[in-house]
Amino acid sequence: MFARRLALLVALFISGFSGSAWAEPSWVQIEAKPTEAEAMARAAAWAATFPNVGGFVLGSGWYAVALGPFSQAEAVAQAELLRREGMIPSDAFVADEARFRQRFWPASAATTATTAPAAAPNEPGLPGETLAAARTSEGRLSAGERMALQEALQWQGYYTSGIDGAFGPGTRASMAAWQGAIGAEQTGVLTSAQRDDLLTRSAAERAALGLADVRDEEAAISVIMPTGLVKFERYEPPFAVYGARDGSGVQVLLISQQGDQTALFTLYDIMQNFEIVPLEGARSREANRFVLSGQNAEIYSHTEVSLRGGLIKGFTLVWPAADAVRMARVLAAMQGSFTPLGNRAMDASLGEPLSIATADLLSGIDLRKPSHSRTGFYLTAAGAVLTTADAAAGCGRVTVDGAAFDTAFVDAATGIAVLTPRVALAPQAVAAFLTLSPRLETEVAVAGFPYADAISAPVLTFGRLAAMSGLGGEADLARLRLVALPGDAGGPVLDPSGAVLGVLLPADTSGTRILPDDLALARQTSALVALLTERGFAPVPARSTGAMAPEDLARLARGLAVQVSCWK
């Protein structure tokens, strides 16, 4: 094995240096890091194994570590061989040098341009053709050839106007910008060699991506997709799943189902919990469409879905963060080509249909799950929520019934926390704190979410008020005779009139004693009034109105109790 790997390294060394003089070198990108320091450290580590490591700044601001340079064919062969031997990551890929910016590794090459030197003023790009000659040769181009150049400039990210074959100020500016990027004089008129170079580069990139019109008859969608990076895997209505090909890290979901606005909004809510939709990013939802964009250090994703004529159609594109520049072109191609076919949607019985209520996996993509969920209840008319301290402990973010909330304060002494909404709310019900001393053995009910996402409405658990003190005689606690689950913690303890006499506390699992299953403790609300008032969340006092019917108590609980989720 050692001898084989040594032979591979020798071959890599020879081919890498022989390719360094080629006009259009390619590289095998093996890593990308968000900071130069991290990338420098990784480049040094790889250099201990490979003789031809290069480090480059990417257009996205990330820093790439690559092997090369090679010809396109050699780069593809080397990448395949080294991946197969386990010597480079499985998601390493071939990249043209044109996608790289300045070089930072090795240090001796950091100040050396990786592109061709600028030509003499009267010989733009390459010797042998003057500016006048370039204008003359350009004038002989057909309309189709001129449009092809505009398309290539558009693909390279320099041209944003219409493809019309007219070389106006916008086209000239884009040509000059492209000339500057390759180190040539920015005349705005491409020489014959530059035109060939531009077209060859764009064609090579398109070929590597495998951009092709995919007609998915089951989803009834036609769209241009990067078939060199993705391959069809399966149908899981409403998704047609195209997974990564050869470790590209790119994924596509085609979305197709019958439905109305409610179904569209439900899909919007569900897809925000996909692992492939990072938390940071723009979200927009309108009456008949939604867009989800997300990005983190590892992946980017973009989803567009529309509702027309009772059909919900759209797509999701996911790609590695380090491949942002190239994939932006793919996204533009998908957006411009996406076309629903006919008046039909994917058969809901095809493959493995989605079950919204119970699915743990959707389209083979893990659902993002909270680290833990508890219960809370509305404390003020502005939407502030009272819950337990552990509900917000160690959370990167906190949501209440799916909406983002901020932690106003946590009080460790009482074990409670108050959360405030980022967007103003108008709760259906607000807690009314009991002002009279309750009688022992009074029937009480805890409104909570004991089964996490399995049931979307709060569950009432009935029991009895056993004592107005804790096990150690604590005067601010109440003992309850009922069976509570961890998700119930933070729920309001309601007396028969619907007044809140306490906040259910989580079970203490740190001790060595095993307590009865039907024993629960609550922090008395009377012990919280002063604290909450001091913090600006003065509670509303209850007015005794007599016992409620069970159905009325359940209705109150649905408007009062909320699910609090902690996300890492």
Structure, briefly:
This protein has 568 residues and is of the alpha+beta class. It has eleven helices and 31 strands. It has a seven-stranded antiparallel beta sheet with strand order 8-9-10-14-13-12-11, with helices on both faces. Strands 18-19-22-21-20-31 form a six-stranded antiparallel beta barrel. The chain has a six-stranded antiparallel β-barrel with strand order 24-25-26-29-28-27.
What does this structure look like?
24% of the residues lie in helices and 31% in strands. 40% of the residues are buried. Helix 5 crosses helix 7. The protein has 4 domains: 2-109, 2-Layer Sandwich (Alpha-Beta Plaits); 131-209, Muramoyl-pentapeptide Carboxypeptidase, domain 1 (Orthogonal Bundle), CATH 1.10.101; 217-366, Protein Transport Mog1p, Chain A (3-Layer(aba) Sandwich), CATH 3.40.1000; 372-567, Thrombin, subunit H (Beta Barrel). The protein is built from 11 helices and 31 strands. The strands form 7 sheets. The chain has a 7-stranded antiparallel beta sheet with strand order 8-9-10-14-13-12-11, with helices on both faces. Strands 18-19-22-21-20-31 form a 6-stranded antiparallel beta barrel. Strands 24-25-26-29-28-27 form a 6-stranded antiparallel beta barrel.
What descriptors fit this protein?
568 residues, alpha+beta, Alpha-Beta Plaits, Muramoyl-pentapeptide Carboxypeptidase, domain 1, Protein Transport Mog1p, Chain A, 7-stranded antiparallel beta sheet, 6-stranded antiparallel beta barrel, 11 helices, 31 strands, 24% helix, 31% strand, disordered N terminus
